[in-house]
Each structure stands twice: as C-alpha cells, then as structure tokens.
Specification:
The chain contains four helices and five strands. By secondary structure, it is an alpha+beta fold. The chain folds into two domains: 34 residues; 106 residues, no CATH class. β3 and β4 form a beta hairpin. The longest helix has 33 residues.
C-alpha cells in the first residue's frame, strides 16, 4: 500500500510541476506578443540613460506622443531632448539588457547620430514649418 501512495504523491507533484510550467509558458508567450508594463518602464529608463550618455550636455525624456512598443522582448522608445527640439531619436532595448540605437534591418540607413549631428532633423522641421506657412498663405490668396 505504501508504494501506491508514493506513486500517487509523485504523480501529483509531477502534474503540479507540469501545470506550473504550462502557466509560465503561457505568460511568457503573452508577454512576448503584447509586452508588459514593467519591461516597458525599464526600456524607457534604459533609453533615457543611453541618450544622456551619448549627449552628456543634454537631458532627455520619453517622447510620449509615441508609444514605447514592445514585442518579443524588443522595445522601441523615442527620446526627446529637453534642450533642443531637434534632438530626438529612437532607441531599441532588447531582452531588458541590451540597448541599441540601430533598428534591425536598416543597416544601410543613416543612424540617429547622422540626423542629429548633421542637423537633418532641423532641416526637416524647418521644411515642414515652411510648407505649413506656404499652405496657409495659398489658401488665403488662391482658394
């Protein structure tokens, strides 16, 4: 009789362990697809620290007009400088630890340092502002 009770206890423990592993796998799958708030906040923190390390004379914040999206443990966070409205770029945080400013699949595209340091962000912003002024003028002058 003792062997039957031992087998039952072992089977119960094994079933409990399998159930816990299944629950953990489902939670990780849900987290991988949808992201979670804790990882999102960690990615925002890491992105701000990364940007402040690149540009030590400036302070940064998370650009809340853009979402800090996360799927499959990759979070893309857009940071904005408090001192210059033209110093903004995306930072990718992968697996909670690795921080990178390169977006995968865009190896041949210029990096954010190219846009910030060569003033392309400023040129784009000034071009958009000029286009808006011209559009407003044309709507009044030539409806």
């Amino acid at each position: 009789m003792k062997t039957k009770t031992n087998k039952t206890k072992k089977l119960r423990r094994l079933a409990l362990a399998a159930a816990l592993l299944l629950i953990l796998a489902l939670l990780l799958a849900f987290d991988a697809i949808n992201g979670d708030p804790l990882s999102q906040q960690w990615a925002i923190y890491r992105a701000i620290r990364y940007a402040e390390k690149l540009y030590p004379e400036e302070t940064f914040h998370w650009d809340q007009r853009t979402a800090a999206d996360g799927q499959f443990f990759h979070y893309m966070v857009y940071v904005q400088s408090d001192q210059s409205r033209d110093t903004n770029f995306a930072v990718q945080t992968r697996f909670w630890l690795l921080t990178d400013d390169e977006i995968r699949g865009m190896e041949f595209e210029p990096t954010h340092t190219f846009y910030v340091d060569h003033r392309w962000n400023t040129a784009y912003r000034l071009g958009d502002e000029a286009a808006q002024q011209v559009a407003a003028y044309l709507t009044v002058q030539a409806p």
